[in-house]
Amino acid sequence: RFIVTTLRPKDTPTIGSPTDDKREKIDFPPFIKDLYVGEFNKSILSYAEVLNYDRYFVLNEQTKHIADFLKENEEKISCINTRGVVPDELLVKLKSLDLFGLLVPGEYGGADLLQTEALRLFQELGDNLSLSELFNINEMMCTKALVAFGNEEQKRKYLEKISVGELWTGFCLAEHSAGSDPNAVKTMAVFDEEEGTYHLKGTKTWVTNAIRADLFLVFANVKTRNYLGEDENSLTSFLVDKELAGIQVSSPYDLAGFNGLQVCDVEFDCKLPVTAILGAAGMGTDIFSSINHHNKYMMAGGIVKRLQRLLKLTTKHTLERKQYGAKLSEFELIKIQIGKRTGRIYALESMLYITSGLADVGVSPDIEVESAVIKQFASETYDYVTRTCLSIVGASTNLKDSPFQEYLAENNVLQSWQGSANIIKCFVALSGILHLVEKKGDDMKKVRQPGLNIFKTLHYRYTTSRKQKVDDFHKELMLENHVHPRMAKSAPLVEWAALNLGYCAEHLLLTQGQNIQVNEANLERLSDMTMLTFAMISALSRASRSYAVGHAHAQHEVSIAIPFIFESRLRVEQLVKEIMADGLMYGERDSFYEDAGSYVIEHGGYCATHPLIKNSV
């Protein structure tokens, strides 16, 4: 393995990275959730570096080896989607690059890396998303659950083999009737008291790497007794060895994108010992929650690298292609389009490493909202960048054998990969609102009763009205004092968005009740506000840090971040208006759209009368 040797503090440079191995955790509160209650942890604007210099140099060396490997095997890697499998010969070569067991503790043969280090390695693999996601899922689902909830016997049995690449894992939750909803799982594990075993029966769908996997993490219901002594189904997770009798794996789905992941159905009709339970009976929901949203952001590392590659191909095309006697690269509109797409990729990458930093420095890091936000932003960014870049490349992208067709296919798959946009957005907004209720619920109840709490109500209305002003709002945070002067004019735009995120959440809670019955359209708007605000904060923090430490392309980063923040601020302003318009005549548009949708569903499709139809006399 690549060995990390911590330097003594006196031998370590004092500028930039910490001088000690970043294992001294701090109690860092949930950043995005706190925005919903009007709290902004300004330390995030330092874009802290969690790697000391020795860890950085080791990581950089490992990244170079991966880049060399990808270049040497470019032809084979380019055929992964067509062949529908990642060749074994590539995986054998990758063993020498120590890409297995990245987050597994050293005592079990793992690399014991920081999240930031693992993310950087996943990003480098992003030349092919099947390859990147294969390692991501193997590391971040079953393996991470085993590290967090496995007993000593289970860890000794599996983790050492996983860490050397001898054992692959698969994640089994989704079912035909359940999708990715853990509460709708039908698979059952019935306990046989005479044999002391569980009979696992059911079929799991969309199992990644099912053919290669040797170990499955399976979620099934078991019968348990509640506090009333009544039988009820409790979701439980099991570690299931593929070698057991009664396990059948289907042929892989023929996917348009990510086809190298060999996604299959797996049918279970087998007996399991009690020792196969991960954690304890009934802990399935807790285990699923701990590895689901918290890890979504990791897949975006590969997406960043993939989009950087597309941008490079597009740029090459503009330098070679001529139109009306001039290169495409000389046209103003082309430059602006490329600049905007660069800004989105920059913001996504900034969000990624701020979040991994939060995960590394926190005692018990709560990054589930940040992670879900990044996943959704990554999907939308992939769509935004892909469609524009391919429009610049032109009609040749429509050819079936065009290499750009793979980007279109991946874009379609990404929009529903690891959860649909609707589910993720509702989760983000509801998580923030629940945090708001927990922190400020009692005060908000008083505001809803102005007759009994006149002064508190008046104070609330006064302060929130000052926050909502667009041009001359009251700056409470003074963020411009916490960034480089070059970014000082952008800081108030970020502050306005952050303050109004909390304000809009409070407004929805007050107007639609504290039983959290906020309509889904406003949950979507609140989630979009959250996503844009976090993107603005991340871009501001990163650009400020780059300019302060004198990075080679610092001025370029500033030129990217400033317009991105400005345009994102305009979008946030529009979302604020839509949320605050609720109840006004033009604010009832959701009701009109909902009625129209119900009518279409009732009639089975589009049913408006053709404009040429005449009524019979």
The total of helices stands at 19
What's the helical proportion of residues? Answer: 40-55%
- The general outline is globular
With strands numbered from the N-terminus, the spatial order across the biggest sheet is 1-4-5-8
Order of helices and strands: HHHHHHHHEEEEEEEEHHEEHHHHHHHHH
What would the average pLDDT be, to the nearest integer? 88
Strand percentage: 5-15%
Would you summarize the structure shown here?
The protein has 617 residues and is an alpha+beta fold.
Overall description:
The protein is an alpha+beta fold. Helices cover 51% and strands 10% of the residues. The chain is built from 19 helices and 10 strands. It has helices spanning 31-35, 53-72, 74-78, 80-83, 88-95, 115-124, 129-149, 152-163, 284-291, 299-320, 332-361, 368-393, 405-414, 421-447, 454-468, 491-512, 520-549, 554-580, 589-603, and strands at 169-172, 188-192, 197-207, 215-225, 231-241, 247-249, 264-273, 277-278, 322-323, 326-327. The strands form 3 sheets. It has a 4-stranded mixed sheet with strand order 1-4-5-8, with helices on one face. It has a 4-stranded antiparallel sheet with strand order 2-3-7-6, with no helix packed on it. Strand 2 (188-192) and strand 3 (197-207) form a beta hairpin. Helix 10 runs parallel beside helix 12 and helix 16 (491-512) runs antiparallel to helix 17. The longest helix is centred in the middle third of the chain and has 30 residues, at 332-361. The radius of gyration is 26 Å and the shape is globular.
